[in-house]
Amino acid sequence: MRALSILAAAVALASSAGSALACSCPRNPTAEGLLASHAAIFTGTVRAVQTIAPGQSVTTFVVSEPFKGAQRGEIVNVYHRSGSSAACGVSFDYGKTYTLAASRQGPQLWTSQCSTWMFLPHVGISGGLITGLRSLRRDR
After folding, report:
1. CB crowding 110-131: b at 16 or more within 10 Å, else e
2. Based on the number of CB atoms within 10 Å of its own CB, is 101 exposed (0-12), middle (13-18) or buried (19 or more)?
3. Distance between CA 123 and CA 105 in Å, rounded?
4. Of 40, 78, 104, 126, which sits 20 to 30 A from 60 (CA to CA)?
5. How large is the average pLDDT for residues 97-112?
6. 44: β partners
7. What domains, with CATH codes, occur in the chain?
């Protein structure tokens, strides 16, 4: 019985450590790298956020500045984890504008903390990335 309790504690500890380390984002992203590795990159305003399953949401954006895979004025649904940023979760607030990169999984676009963090103003690299994306824009 004691061995079972120790095993259960070890499993719980390992799973909590795994979820805390689950989101490991690449450092020093570049505009070229983002364009090569994502299906869509755009700036858009949130029109709706809907929880579709525990820990998963879909956010609807209206695109204001496309860089790849979207058109200005297009309505785009992006799926994402909605939990902790440590587990790559991300949240979007209704009415706010965000720049993000999204990958295609089947017919759906998905994003995560790793595809949004670099565009947050307090990170300090968003201006350079957006300038780079503008200079390499594919959807003119």
Report:
1. bbbbbbbbbbeeeeeeeeebbe
2. buried
3. 27
4. 126
5. 95
6. 63, 98
7. 26-135 (2.40.50.120)
Structure tokens at 29: 């992203």
Question: For residue 78, what are its two tokens?
Answer: 């992006």
- Whether the pLDDT of residue 21 is over 90: the answer is no
Buried b (16+ CB within 10 A) or exposed e, 80-92: bbbbebebbbbeb
Find, among 119, 67, 114, 124, the residue nearest to 97 by Cα.
Answer: 119
Task: Round to whole Å and give the CA distance between 34 and 114.
Answer: 11
CA pair distance 87, 125, nearest whole angstrom? 22
Model pLDDT, residue 53: 94
Please check the confidence at residue 12 and state whether its pLDDT lies above 70. Answer: no
As given in the structure block, the two tokens for residue 34 are 């983002």
Residue 56, Cβ density class (10 Å: 0-12 exposed, 13-18 middle, ≥19 buried) = middle
Token pair 């994402």 is found at: 80
- Half-sphere exposure in the Cβ direction for 94 (13 Å, CA): 4
Of 105 and 21, more confident: 105
